[in-house]
Amino acid sequence: MSDSAAIRSFKAGQLWQPGGWHADAMLGVDAGGRLVEPAVTSAEPLGAWILPGMPNLHSHAFQRAMAGLAERKGRVDDSFWSWRETMYAFAAAIGPDELKAIAAQLYVEMLKAGYTQVCEFHYLHHQPDGTPYAQLETMSLALIEAAREAGIALTLLPVLYISGGFDGRALTARQRRFGHTVDGYLRLLETLRRHESDDVRVGIALHSLRAVPEQAMREVLASDMAKTRPIHIHIAEQIGEVQDCLATRGARPVEWLFDHADVDSRWCLVHATHLTEAETLQIARSGAVAGLCPTTEANLGDGLFPLAAYQDAGGTLGIGSDSHISISPVEELRWLEYGQRLQTRHRNIAARHEGDSVGETLWRAALRGGAQAAGLPVGELRGGARADLIVLDDNSPLLAARDTCSVLDSLLFAGNTPLVRDVMVGSHWQVRDFHHHDEERIAARYRVVVARLAGV
Ligand code: NGQ
Ligand code: ZN
User: Fold this and answer.
1) Last-in-domain residue among 374, 403, 429
2) Same domain, 91 and 122
């Protein structure tokens, strides 16, 4: 039984639930950070608009510190692959202290933007020259520590990375620090399991089909961990990798994956960009999450996800900020819709039925798919769930005279100034009145680290 004295009770003007807004909703939060029955007598007013916090289903934390440093024309025709060289050079200067400082800053920014949970797709495992750290999990621990400092919930996804391409070629010098044997990888997972808590979960990630040969994939998927944990993979982001997959494995990436693995609701297919109609339906029917990162996918010139067909087939989706060129659920969802509008020259694409709101449709979808990809049971604020919530700024002129029919559309299409006023993760207020409780210290440390990296 919960100790009623330890339960704090809150009253929401309007509370977002999967079915829509609920007026005058009451929330009880226990000391363990769970939602419970509220004590009706002493409820603190929270604000006019309360939403569940948004899960961020895809992050490479270190890349935040190079945001904007790859936007100048190079000698070659700039592409995803030339960006990757810049990114690799940058990654080579990141050790545990740098990773922790950058990730903590990033996670504070995520919280302030309304993300309360992050899936960290982590592959900088070893020292820059490829030698393992004395403690194998050193870099993973830097991420766990950063998440704890910032107060964001973490699904840590250590990444299996074995080969440098579909042909099984060896890792390049710069990729060596990503590499594991299957045994080494499974040992890392076992070690990290010991760090799990209410706020830290561990899942599985295969970098891509390029980086994981078939046999290695089979062995990892046969492990106990794989039976119950989220499994993430980069799948079909670039046309080049679709072509290489066809040439070496005789099938397109999504096609091949479904032929060789039981893809179901444990899976998150990140950048499921280049899909045939059949692949689109296959993902939708499997219950897997399509992990979409629209600002990064735009920044890297990836392509557009077939949103309408996927939604019509009942597909599950969530959003990630990936390279962190932008840290804003609003901007991810907006670009998801705008990409489709620009391509089709029509409007209101994500809303599939007359009268549906684009903002509500996308916010609802990303909450659900994001929670699923993070290995969390539900993405809604009800009894037993985590108390991860955001409070919108009802003082903002932008939300003046908005009602339950329009508030999420105004937030999504016009919310460029921060409209997230307060953020609770577990039972803690991490952001109050736009201010994170440790943001000055974390930003000061970040500045020192980035200045050092700028000398690289
Ligand atoms: C990554 N990022 O692992 O950081 C990748 C680039 C690759 C994105 N795909 C490297 N956005 O895919 O090989
Ligand atoms: Zn990625």
Assistant:
1) 374
2) yes
- What CATH number does the domain containing 143 carry? 3.20.20.140
Strand order in the sheet with 44-52: 35-36, 20-29, 8-17, 44-52, 389-392, 420-425, 428-432, 435-436
Q: Is 234 in the pocket of ligand 1 (CB under 6 A)?
A: yes
- With respect to residue 92, please indicate whether it lies within any of the assigned structural domains: yes
- Asked if 304 and 235 sit in the same domain, the reply is yes
| Predicted TM-score of the model (pTM) | 0.97
Domain that holds residue 316: 54-374
Reply yes or no on whether 322 is catalytic. Answer: yes
Q: What is the pLDDT of residues 149-165, one digit of tens each?
A: 999 999 999 999 999 99
Q: Reply yes or no on whether 58 is catalytic.
A: no
Amino acid, single-letter form, for residue 426:
G
Give the pLDDT of residue 47: 96
CA of 64 to the centre of ligand 2 (A): 12
> Which protein residue has the closest C-alpha to ligand 1 atom 6?
84
| Total tally of structural domains belonging to the chain | 2
Q: Are residues 133 and 219 in the same domain?
A: yes
CA distance 156 to 404: 35
Residues 359 and 395 in one domain: no
- Pick from 348, 374, 400: which residue ends a domain? 374
Dist. CA 102 → ligand 2 center (Å): 17
Q: Specify whether 26 is located in the same domain as 137.
A: no
Q: What is the pLDDT of residue 232?
A: 98
Do 150 and 283 lie in one domain? The reply is yes
In a domain? residue 451: no
CB distance 296 to ligand 1 below 6 Å: yes
Q: Is 449 within a domain? A: no
Low-confidence ranges of the chain (pLDDT < 70): 1-5, 378, 456
Q: Is residue 455 part of a domain?
A: no
26 and 126 together in one domain? no
